[in-house]
Specification:
By secondary structure, the chain is mainly alpha-helical. The chain has one domain. 65% of the residues lie in helices and 0% in strands.
């Protein structure tokens, strides 16, 4: 079943959204659905199994590590040496 969602936008905001949708060759409705879908998918999930899978996968890689004090010093030196 589909549901209708009504939102109110001022004219300038709607014009900007319509312009972006046109550039992407989408209707305003499809553009808004796409943006809302992407926003929803980027939200952290609550599925513990998925989180564990990601942690297990990440633990299989070798990441550079160092003493935290050394790392902080290297970061500070990097900021100070930056142009």
């Amino acid at each position: 079943m589909s549901h209708r969602l009504q939102i109110l936008l001022d004219e300038d905001e709607f014009a900007e959204i319509r312009a972006v949708a046109r550039r992407r060759r989408l209707t305003v409705s499809e553009y808004v659905r796409t943006v809302l879908r992407d926003a929803r998918l980027s939200e952290p999930g609550t599925d513990a199994g998925r989180k564990l899978l990601v942690v297990r996968e990440a633990s299989g890689y070798a990441y550079p590590t160092a003493n935290p004090d050394e790392m902080e010093e290297q970061i500070r030196r990097g900021y100070l040496d930056a142009p």
